[in-house]
Structures are given as C-alpha cells and as structure tokens.
Design goal:
heterodimer; A: mainly beta; six-stranded mixed sheet; three-stranded antiparallel sheet; B: mainly beta; seven-stranded mixed sheet; four-stranded antiparallel sheet
Chain lengths: ~110, ~120
C-alpha cells in the first residue's frame, strides 16, 4: 500500500489557477473513479472538497474542480484566494478494498 | 447537524492498549459506513479502517492489521477502535469519519493518542 504521489508544495498568486497532481497506479487511481480530495487548514479536521473524481459536495466553491487521466488525478483551484492556503490530500480506493492517501500538498497563496 | 465526537485518547506506554470511541449524532448512523483515519504530528493523513453500516464488512490498512479492531454499536450510535500492541509510530490524532469520500463525508475533531514510555 504505497502512498499516492503528490507534489510537496505548490504556490500561486491571488486570482491565478493552480493544479495539484496525484499519481497512483492501475490498482488504485487508474482502476477506479473513486478519487477524492480533502482540504485541511492548520489545526483543523480535513474537509471533503471533491469526491468520485470530479463531484463537489454542496457548499464547496465551484473554483475547485477535479479530473483524472490514466493513473493521475488532478485538483485545480481557479481564482486563488487567500483562504485557499491549506494542505490538500488526495485519496483513492484501491484493489485491496482499502483507501490510500497521497502525501499531501501545501498550497501557499503568495 | 452532523456531529462526530471522538474520545478515549491519551498517553499509553509502548505495548499497551487503548480503546477509542466515536459518538455520532445528526445522522442515521446505521446507514453510514464508518472509517478511522489518523494523522501523526506534522505528517499526512493515513486511512486505517472501514466498517460497513451493519458491521459485517471490515477492512484494515496493513499497518494496523492484527493489532487494531474496529467495531460499532448501532443502537448506541457509536464506533470503536480497539488498539493493542501500540508502538511509538501509532502516535497521532485519530479521526472518526462517516461515509468517507462520499457526499456524506463528515469528520470528527479527532482525539490524540500518544505512545511513549
């Protein structure tokens, strides 16, 4: 059960768009449309922002979008805002009937 | 509104045991599969276990298989995690999550477990 691969950090200026990648294998990300993304602010519990690759729960801004191509899933945040500064984690269902997280990406809004 | 409240965390010696509880409210508890997820200090998230709504299907991460046992009592709207043979690397905040990674994904605030002599 190796962790999914995410960049350790990304940054962007307010108003810009950024994309965070999440790379797995055909046994997890590539094999199922069960990729989710969670946002975590310091000292807080994580919050779901994308599930099943591209669906947004109610209350999540449409500036957040998800996609997948092959073994790599992506989270795109458009129109960056200061409050988007947080850690972001991808997660995927795996063939072992377990779930695997990525290592997390720290987003800095410059 | 949905509320998940974890309890039972604390300081335990290596090799010791601890039982975490999670009290749920605001949801029809038996309709929701439940998960435990942990986060070591300064580290990322780690998925630990899944239990179906009826409690008949259970899965574990390899890192805790054979040491941790998840269970639930739907009559009490409660989820449990029995942790045995604890190690220093089990030190983390433990989160209870309902319907993880679905539209009904809700997290508790977590309970801290510290394994140290």
């Amino acid at each position: 059960q190796s962790a999914l691969t995410q960049p350790a950090s990304v940054s962007g200026s307010p108003g810009q768009s950024i994309t965070i990648s999440c790379t797995g294998t055909s046994s997890d990300v590539g094999g199922y449309n069960y990729v989710s993304w969670h946002q975590q602010h310091p000292g807080k519990a994580p919050r779901l922002i994308i599930y099943d690759v591209f669906y947004r729960p109610s209350g999540v801004s449409n500036r957040f979008s998800g996609s997948k191509s092959g073994n790599t899933a992506s989270l795109t945040i458009s129109g960056l805002q200061a409050e988007d500064e947080a850690d972001y984690y991808c997660n995927s269902y795996a063939s072992t009937s377990t779930r695997i997280f990525g290592g997390g990406t720290k987003l800095t809004v410059l | 509104q949905v509320q998940l409240v974890e309890s039972g965390g604390g300081l335990v010696k290596p090799g010791g045991s601890l039982r975490l509880s999670c009290a749920a409210s605001g949801i029809r508890f038996s309709d929701h599969y439940m998960s435990w997820i942990r986060q070591a200090p300064g580290k990322g998230l780690e998925w630990l276990s899944y239990i179906s709504g009826g409690g008949t299907t259970i899965y574990y991460a390899d890192s805790v298989k054979g040491r941790f046992t998840v269970s639930r009592d739907n009559a009490k709207n409660s989820l449990y995690l029995q942790m045995n043979s604890l190690r220093a690397e089990d030190t983390a905040v433990y989160y209870c999550v309902s319907s993880f990674s679905s539209i009904n994904d809700y997290w508790g605030q977590g309970t801290l477990v510290t394994v140290s002599s």
